[in-house]
Each structure stands twice: as structure tokens, then as C-alpha cells.
Description:
This protein has about 400 residues and is of the alpha+beta class. It has helices at about 35-45, 55-65, 90-115, 140-145, 165-180, 200-210, 215-220, 280-300, 325-335, 345-350, 360-370, 395-400, 405-409; strands at about 20-30, 35, 70-75, 125-130, 155-160, 190-195, 225-230, 245-255, 260-270, 270-280, 315-320, 375-385, 390-395.
Amino acid sequence: MSPSAVRNSTANDHFKDDLQLSIVGLGVEYPPHRVGAHDLETVAERFYPHPQSTALKKVLSINRYTGIETRASVGSVDHPLVNSPTPPTITQLNKAFREDGVRLSVSACRKALKEWGGSVDDITHVVSTTCTNSANPGFDHFVTKELGLRKGVEKVLLHGIGCSGGLAAIRTAANMALGMSHRQKPARILVLACELSTLLIRSELDSIDKNQEVRIGVCLFSDCASSVIISNGIGDAPSSEPVYEILGWKHELLDDTEDDLGFDVDPMGKYSCWKVVLSPRVPGLAAAAVAPAFQDLLKSLPKFHKGAIPATAADFDWALHPGGSTIITGVEQAMNLTPEHLRASYEVYINYGNSSSATVISVLDKLRNMEDQGRENAVACAFGPGIILEMMILKKRSALESLPREDLD
């Protein structure tokens, strides 16, 4: 595979019809606990008793109308870190991530490895991401040790990309795999995203109460680890069946949006917390950006221009990162889609909430396991701090299984 498969990094990129890149294993692990809107109110009442501040009242009111029924969490409303006299320190949060985050990550990776069916000794690279832990060495160090990967496996840990991290990690792995193809070497790349957000609710509530800032991240975020394995096809068994085939991708920065979406360390007296930054402009910015990005990506994929009628957004299933209900509905309206196109995104959002970088892989997992197989191809899309847009088009397994075997080889 030549690097000319992707010729430039502009709107005029063109991908070859067959990059020989596929997702051959996929695993998602949610923690066992589920929390609802009432649980956030319970914590607020315990530590910020009446009369509650104006900002906190408004956040708790918004909390009742997010559209999320339950969020996945590593602990119940009675978790010790949520019920200490003061919000947890960075040290305490890092310890919890080292335990719970690594455990979730290992489980998700093992699911992906099992579906792939290969040996951990054949993993060539690991690309990981998180925005809820910043320790060094990174959490990926402990995950690879627990999985028993080779000491020489090449690792990359992505940071600062928030909810776009899952797709950014897949994109990074895909580019690595193309490089290995150019060297005529096999690539089996383990991609991992893990987030623990629910243990931050005390520091978020404390910051909202003291600073009188209405921030809704505390109403949306949840915990999850998700993983995929990407292959460049070299050395694959003839009978191996990909979960998805990767057709092409796009990465784009939205101008003048640095202050609209973020996840910052915020000093609060004797402790520090991560503070979610999510401005009211985000749903509109996201909806407006998707159409031109989608058109640019389609132009880079010749296979979608061979027919007399060009492909439209409605010809694809959509695995949209469910950043919030207004983001999903905004993209749905902007792209002339129906809820059915976004059924996997809605289901993950309603039942698990927004798990930041790990979520989009969970949506892809949900989409491929739905009884209604839907359309031949899917668009995956996510937004992260910057604001960064990540988009990818993939061919689904149901479509791949319908092709003659020689077309897959």
C-alpha cells in the first residue's frame, strides 16, 4: 500500500477505492452501576443544602430534561469519592483511574482481541486516548502490561482531544497501518479509549456553586472503555471477516471555537478539578459543520461518484457521537436525516449517556448489532475541543458479507 493512498491533507484529498484497512475486532465495557437524574440531585442535596445557589438550581433543572435515562458509572451515589467532606484530589482521582479505568480498559481490549481471534504477540501498535486522566506513565502503560503485550509494542497516547478522541485514535491507527503497508509489513493496531467522568461530579458541583457558572457537563457524562483492532490486511487469514472496512476520513478545525468546548484543570482552593467547558453555541456549530465536512469527505472517495445519482447523507447510517440531545437533533435536521438513521446514537445516549472519547466506538458496536441492518455504509462523526471535527466513512459487515469472497481478498 502506497502513502499516495492519501495524497494531501486538504479538502481535495482522494482515497483509493480499497485501502485494505479494516476493524477486525471491537469491544466495549461499561461499569456495572447505573445512575439517573435523581442521583445527581441526591448528591447536591447532601453537600449543597437549601437554599441552593441560582446556578446550581438551574443545572439541576436542566438535569431532569437531558433525555438520558441512565448513565454508566464505576460507583453508586454512595461512592466514597463522591461523599467525602471535600471533592476528591487529583491524586485520589488518578488512583481510582489506575484501578477502575485500567480494569475497564483491559476488559474492553480483551473483547476486541477475542473477536479478532489473533495473538497478543501479533499486536504491532497501541493507540490510546483519554481526557479524564493525565498521569505519567499513561494508563495505556498499565493496560498493555496487564494484557501481556510485547515490551517492544509501539504505543501512542493521545491527549487534549476530548470527545473526538475515539475517532481520532482510529484515524491515527489507520495512518500508521498505511505506513506499515508501504513497508510491506503487517499491522495489527489496538485502539483504546477510556473515560471515568462520574467521579468528577463533586468538583463540578462545587465549582458551579462557588463560581455561579451554569455548566451542564455534570448532567451528561458517564464512564466507559472501548477498543478496536485495526488490520492492514497483510497476513490476514482468507476467511477472516472484518467488522467494518475503513474507506476514508476527515479531520477539521472549526475557526474561533477554542472557548466553546474544552475540559480544563481548574484550581479550587486546596484541590483541583477538571471543569467541562460546553458553550450554548456548540450544537449550532456542530450542525453547521457536518454538511460541508461530509461533502468534502464524499469528494475524496471516488466509489461514491460512480453512479448517475451522487450519494447523499440519507444513504448512510450515522454513528454520531451523542454529545447531547441538541447535538443529535441538530445534525439530524441539518443533514435531512431521520431518527432511524441515528438510532444507534440515540440508544447509547439514552441508556448510557456521553462517555466522551469512548462513546463513538460504543455507537459503532451498537449499530453493527442492531436487528435492522440498515444501510451498506456508515458515517462516524464526533466533535472535540478546538473545536475539532472527526469524520469517517466505513463499510458495514452486513455489506461485506454480501460481497463475493474474491472482492474481499
